[in-house]
Specification:
Layout: H1 7-12, E1 35-36, E2 42-43, E3 47-49, H2 65-75, E4 81-83, E5 87-88, H3 108-115, E6 123-128, E7 140-141, E8 158-159, H4 162-181, E9 186-191, H5 196-201, H6 216-219, H7 221-234, E10 240-245, H8 258-270, E11 275-279, H9 295-308, E12 313-316, H10 322-330, E13 336-339, H11 341-345, H12 349-354, H13 371-390
Parallel strand pairs: 3-4, 3-13, 4-6, 5-6, 6-9, 7-8, 9-10, 10-11, 11-12, 12-13
Antiparallel strand pairs: 1-2
Length: 392
């Protein structure tokens, strides 16, 4: 899953911007209005740069000049906040080489250097654990269930012991505290896309028979323990978000779906979460990217969620027209719009929308690629943005 090399990468690094036109009198509605989270934190507008795993850390998992350059460019893009991509809590369970790793207090300084590049906007840090999706030599997971999907180089995993589960909780807490001390505005706990916390939630990948498996109450235990411990560490005024799968996309048999996701969201609301970001799928059924993505599915679930809880909701994936964004916010379906691919195509997408320059967020020639080709396009494009920013 490395960055593409050769002529194809250079072609993809200069994408087409799709449908757009100047419309300075466009009524932005709530898009330009601030959002105040339950903890009291204020986000200046309703457009967020959603998480995009970058694979730009050095061999020790430290963020360096390339990542700083990329986020310095995004910081000028007009977003309410920037969500980093997939900062790992355990270097033995990486999503891929090039992940940023936060696993000790020694990480504060390099994290602070990275986040300082986003001065003038808010930087949130997404923290996660790859579990069975790890490309590391000895991945761990809830039950050792083999992972099959588009992601290459995934080795068989082994089931976590109870002591190791407690260590996972400790790692999420440590990463949250380091990120806070490094200057981030909030953290997001990654419980989607087939990574470890999603693996615990799903009956397809969690076949444990102890307190962390079986019933939904047991399967959500690890996520709720992490949320409670992180809240206890960072305090009541620091924002905590959770990224949660609406569905794993399986059509039959054992699956993770809407009914259980709704119950988990209600429990998260009771645990004091400030924001829930909705997504879906994994590398086997990538609802979150590509032609199989179903933004309407996430939107329908968001409607259900907003009638069941009052936690702010961020809707990410497939929302492109400004008219749709306005309608989603006005109707209360969601409170924030997450833009991932459009931010890679055009780093100024939020600024252009808020100034009336765009009525449709840009797409690219990569939109119809399969998931692995699309991810390679993402990495190539982000590398190109970082290079361009570095020579300014």
């Amino acid at each position: 899953m490395g960055i593409l090399a050769g002529p194809l990468a250079e072609t993809w690094a200069v994408p087409s911007f799709g449908a757009s036109r100047r419309h300075p009198r466009l009524n932005l509605g709530m898009l330009s209005q601030p959002l105040v989270l339950p903890c009291g934190h204020r986000i200046p507008n309703r457009l967020a740069k959603a998480a995009t795993t970058e694979h730009m850390a050095d061999s020790a998992g430290r963020p360096g000049p390339r990542l700083a350059a990329l986020y310095r460019r995004w910081a000028r893009g007009g977003f309410g906040f920037l969500m980093t991509g997939n900062v790992m809590v355990d270097r033995k369970n990486l999503e891929a080489d090039g992940n940023v790793v936060v696993d000790s207090w020694d990480c504060v300084a390099p994290m602070r250097a990275w986040l300082s590049a986003t001065a003038g906007t808010q930087a949130w840090v997404q923290i996660g654990h790859a579990g069975a999706l790890s490309t590391s030599p000895e991945p761990t997971s809830p039950s050792g269930v083999p992972y099959r999907g588009a992601k290459p180089a995934v080795r068989p995993s082994r089931a976590l012991t109870i002591d190791e589960i407690k260590d996972v909780v400790r790692r999420f807490v440590l990463a949250s505290a380091v990120a806070r001390d490094a200057g981030c505005a909030g953290v997001e706990i990654h419980a989607a896309h087939g990574f470890l916390l999603n693996q615990f939630l799903s009956p397809a990948t969690n076949q444990r028979t102890d307190d962390y498996g079986g019933s939904l109450e047991n399967r959500m235990r690890l996520l709720l323990e992490i949320v409670a411990e992180v809240r206890g560490e960072v305090g009541g005024s620091f924002p905590i978000a959770v990224k949660l799968n609406v569905s794993d996309g399986r059509q039959a048999g054992v699956r993770w779906g809407e009914e259980e996701a709704l119950l988990v969201c209600q429990r998260l609301a009771g645990a004091g979460i400030d924001l829930i970001e909705l997504s879906g799928g994994d590398y086997q059924r990538p609802l979150m990217v590509g032609s199989v993505r179903s933004s309407n599915y996430f939107r329908d679930f968001a409607c259900r969620l907003k009638t069941a809880t009052d936690v702010p909701v961020m809707l990410t994936g497939g929302v492109r027209s400004v008219e749709s964004m306005r309608e989603i916010l006005k109707s209360g379906i969601a409170d924030m719009i997450g833009l991932a691919r459009p931010a890679i195509v055009e780093p100024d997408v939020a600024k252009l929308i808020l100034s009336g320059e765009l009525v449709v967020a840009p797409g690219s020639d990569a939109d119809d690629l399969d998931v692995m080709e699309m991810l390679s396009w993402h990495y190539a494009r982000m590398a190109a943005i970082a290079r361009s920013e570095s020579v300014r």
